[in-house]
Amino acid sequence: MRLLKIQNYIGGSLVAPNSGKYLDNINPAIGEVYSQIPDSDRHDIEQAQQAAEKAKESWAKTPKNKRSEIMMRIADLIDQNLEELAKAESIDNGKPLKLAKAVDIPRASSNMRFFATGILHYSNESHDMDGIAINYTLRKPIGVVGCISPWNLPLYLFTWKIAPALASGNCVVAKPSEVTPMTAYLFSKLCIEAGLPAGVLNIVHGLGSKVGASITSHPKIKAISFTGGTATGKHIASVAAPMFKKLSLELGGKNPNIIFADCDFEKALKTTMHSSFANQGQICLCGSRIFVQRPIYDKFKTAFVDKVSKLKVGNPMDSDSNLGAVVSKEHQEKVMSYVALAQEEGGTILTGGVTVNPGGINEKGYFIRPTVIEGLSFDCRTNQEEIFGPVVTIMPFDTEEEVLTYANSTEYGLAATVWTQDVGKATRMGANLESGIVWVNCWLVRDLRTPFGGVKNSGVGREGGFNAFNFFTESTNVCIAL
Ligand code: NAD
Fold first, then answer.
1. Is the distance from CB of 414 to CB of 434 less than 8 angstroms?
2. Which residue among 35, 161, 352, 411 has the highest number of C-beta atoms inside a 10 angstrom radius?
């Protein structure tokens, strides 16, 4: 059988990589190669950058409402192709089809619409100096920018970066994860159908070490928006910062989920199921360290473990599967190595802790049972390092001060969740948690206008709303004497 060959999208056309070489793309729920992805290199990036350079003046001068119209057409096409895109995302990533249909793909079209309309409301600042002078600040597109995204929410995060860059008048050289390239490829076809001018967006597939590194180090790609692991972000910063590129880094997390005794118990329990295991725990915002206040610790632990043990891990295409496959064999091995480490560190597995073979066509897929681990100290490696899989730890605490010490003890600071009915306590936690985002009595409730990003080693800069437009533009202040 001839496998589908994904193509790069450069200068408005779908093209093969210069090398003529391809990499295997694996369906993680089946454990087999099902398509091929360009093994691109710096020559393809050079071509993409030149196509973007050629398009940049005209795109920057295209009126905002015209840019917005084209982006809205792309959003409409995403919606019209929801079924196909969701299925492709599920096959490529291993996530349940129902999740891709309800979250990933609708969010991709929302991203396009949000920034397509947002740019129409983005205004310049003006500062009046009491009759002496007046300042106004122009916001100009940077030119050619690079966007690099990870595998966990493929089209969702790819569009989250590309949409504000395009809306604010930049041309883009983008690289989706080589682990999940399919929806970015389908997206490039939709861009062609929607009439996006040639060279405005270029999508180059391939390995991070070749394609990603070529984007990061290209002297004419002036800004890098990156979402991925902290180690990769550190490397990118070491290359791009000395070149004085603008950098937005959205990195890893080790998020605390803090459950006080005065919480709405049922709501906390239900949401903790999602915040722990949605997308097989492969969301940077998942709460992987659960701290429960001692008076309800045993009650919560028993109810939680009971529910987790009943979750169905299976074929992502089945509507009753709660969890699908993790993204790759390597990732399965990494997650399982942390389960072993947790036991070495004295942890007890309350449920899960094993790989699963759902049988049938999924016999060779990469599945892990959702896992809850108890009995670890807050500062052990299992509780400090990002696992990024269906594995959570659960620990008791007594006081606010104590849980703040635990929560803030990691190198990360992306998101935190707090469950309490006491508004004073919620406010104090919001103020004292070292975290870019704090959710109180909810999780993953997203208003796209709000600042999104992490503190400490979880990242640099903020995306979302006008923050994203500020990142993708350069400002010039004009001061006119009166
Ligand atoms: P990763 O860092 O391995 O890869 C991310 C992207 O960077 C991929 O496209 C990859 O090909 C590319 N890349 C790899 N090496 C590169 C290099 N040397 N130069 C340039 N690009 C390079 O991350 P991943 O495994 O794909 O994703 C999982 C990680 O992403 C987790 O740590 C997770 O927490 C993080 N993440 C963060 C957020 C956030 O918003 N903060 C969101 C999603 C995922």
1. no
2. 161
d(CA 65, ligand 1 centre) in Å: 33
Which pLDDT belongs to residue 1? 67
Query: Measured from the CB, is residue 463 less than 6 Å from ligand 1?
Result: no
Asked if residue 414 has its Cβ within 6 Å of ligand 1, the reply is: yes
Please tell me if the CB atom of residue 285 comes closer than 6 angstroms to any atom of ligand 1: no
Q: Does residue 180 line the site of ligand 1, with CB under 6 A?
A: no
Q: Encode burial over 13-40: b for 16+ CB neighbours within 10 A, e otherwise.
A: eebebbeeebbebbbbbbbeeebbbbbb
Task: Please name each of the domains of the chain with its CATH number.
Answer: 4-251+458-481 (3.40.605.10), 255-449 (3.40.309.10)
Catalytic residue of the set 178, 284, 286, 386:
284
Q: How many CA atoms lie within 13 A of 46 on its CB side?
A: 4
How big, in percent rounded to 5, are the helix, strand and coil portions of the chain?
Answer: 45, 25, 35
**pLDDT score for 62:** 98
Residue whose CA is at the smallest distance from ligand 1 atom 32: 229
Measured distance CA(285)–CA(66) in Å, rounded: 35
- Using the atom order of ligand 1, give the atom closest to the CA of residue 458: 41
User: Which SS3 state, helix, strand or coil, does residue 94 take?
Assistant: coil
Query: Which stretches of the chain score pLDDT less than 50?
Result: none
Collapsed DSSP state (helix, strand, coil) of residue 289: strand
* 33 neighbors 24 (Cβ within 8 angstroms): yes
Q: Is 212 in the pocket of ligand 1 (CB under 6 A)?
A: yes
Q: Is 380 a catalytic residue?
A: no
Determine how many CB atoms are found less than 10 A away from the CB of residue 213: 18
Pocket probe for ligand 1: among 39, 93, 148, the residue whose CB has the most ligand atoms within 8 Å is: 148
CB atoms within 10 A of CB 98: 18
pLDDT tens by residue, 46-67? 999 999 999 999 999 999 999 9
How are beta strands 246-250 and 459-460 bridged, if at all? antiparallel
Is 284 known to be catalytic? yes
